Amino acid sequence: MNEQTLSMRLERVAAHVPQGARLADIGSDHGYLPVALALRGVIEAGLAGEVAQVPFASAQRNVRRNGLQEKVIVRLADGLDAIEAADGITAISLCGMGGVTMCEILERGKNRLNGKQRLILQPNGGERELRGWLMENDYRIVSEELLRENRFDYEIIVAERCEAVAYSAEELYFGPLLMREKAPAFITKWQRMLRQKQQSLANFERAKDAIPQEKLGEFARQIGWINAVLA
Ligand SMILES: C[S@@+](CC[C@H](N)C(=O)[O-])C[C@H]1O[C@@H](n2cnc3c(N)ncnc32)[C@H](O)[C@@H]1O
What we know:
This protein is of the alpha/beta class. Helix content is 44%, strand content 23%. The protein folds into two domains: 8-179, Vaccinia Virus protein VP39 (Rossmann fold, 3-Layer(aba) Sandwich), CATH 3.40.50; 186-230. It contains nine helices and seven strands, in the order αβαβαββαβαββαααα. Helix 4 (99-108) packs parallel to helix 5 and helix 8 (184-206) packs antiparallel against helix 9 (213-230). The structure holds S-adenosylmethionine.
């Protein structure tokens, strides 16, 4: 992967960035996403935010190597602190981190969210918690995707601020749009998850004494939801 050839995962994230956006990519690592989108003429301006020195330096190198210093800013900062009001950011991407870490970044950086930016999120796990944060903070999920690359399932969640939105426990778990669409990748993922969960539940039941009853109940509940969504 590099700024010319993105992974399929980042390519699908890129597809949700509107033409002419001013994109802040937080936790940008090498800065591949904003650099690629600037090279393609998709974004008007880009910001690569990084909290760690080594990826920050790598993003700076990639921006310089491509002659994009006028178009893509690289900032060393924690989470949304990288965003300044004068940047006029219209889209924020957070990719390749745990969903719970993303919730913490969004929660800590709430003062940088002006309600007009599109959030493009690709969590590695913790999708349910992330959707919960979005609902609690009045963000409606406007698009969702599920893809498999290198034996991992990735979900992309795109959200925009709204008046108020309510999702059921099942919608937070599966994704409100993904569970409605039931694309082949969704069916395959949840068939696999069902087998894993049934196996875990059988193991738990054999070791009944050690496993708290609520945990068994939660597993059984999730298996019920998966059976229902696949039915
Ligand atoms: C696994 S990489 C993902 C890189 C890229 N976004 C992608 O999806 O390919 C996660 C990056 O997030 C950065 N990161 C983690 N916590 C962060 C924070 N609070 N603020 C900014 N960057 C953060 C890490 O330093 C790391 O470079």
